[in-house]
Amino acid sequence: IWLLNEKYGNICWSPCAAHCLNLILQDISKMPHVVDLARRGSHVTKFLYNHKWPLGWLRNRPGCTEILRPGETRFATTFIALKSLHDHKLDLQAMVTSSEFHGWRPSRSTRGKTAKDIILDSRFWNDCLVIVKIVGPLMRLLRIVDSDEKPALGYVYEG
C-alpha cells in the first residue's frame, strides 16, 4: 500500500473503521476487570436462560424485554449483553428478593445463590454502568460504520 501511495499520491487510503473499532473493543474486553465483569454477567444470564421460571417471571413484568446473551464471534456482544443486564437491573433485583424466588428450589442451589449474590451486588451494577458508558460511544460508532445502508465515512470524520 505504501508503494502505491508513493507512486500515486492522489490515492486516498483509510483502514476499515468497523475492524478498527472491533479491535479496540477486543482490547477492552481482554482487560482483567472487564473479563471478570463479563464472567459474572454471563453467570447471571446462563442461570436465567437455563430455567423457565425466571424467564417467565421477567416476561410478565410490564415493559420487560429479552435479556441479550453474549455471542462468541464479536467482541461488541459482550458489552451489549452487559448493557442489557444493566437495563434489567431493577427487575432482576425484584425477582431475587421476591417470595416466589425464595420458594423456588433452584434458587437455593450453588448457582442460584451465586446469581442472586451477583444481582444484589451494587459494585457489579456500578461496574456495568461504567463499562456501558465507556464503550457506548464506540458501540454507536460501530453501528454507524458497520451499516450497509449509506456510506458512513463522512460521519466518522464529522464526529
UniProtKB/TrEMBL annotation:
TM stretches of this protein: none
SUPFAM superfamilies assigned to the protein according to its UniProt record, in alphabetical order: Ribonuclease H-like (SSF53098)
Residue stretches in coiled coil: none
Signal peptide: none
Span of domain DUF659: 3-37
Organism, as annotated: Opuntia streptacantha (Prickly pear cactus)
UniProt-recorded name of the protein: DUF659 domain-containing protein
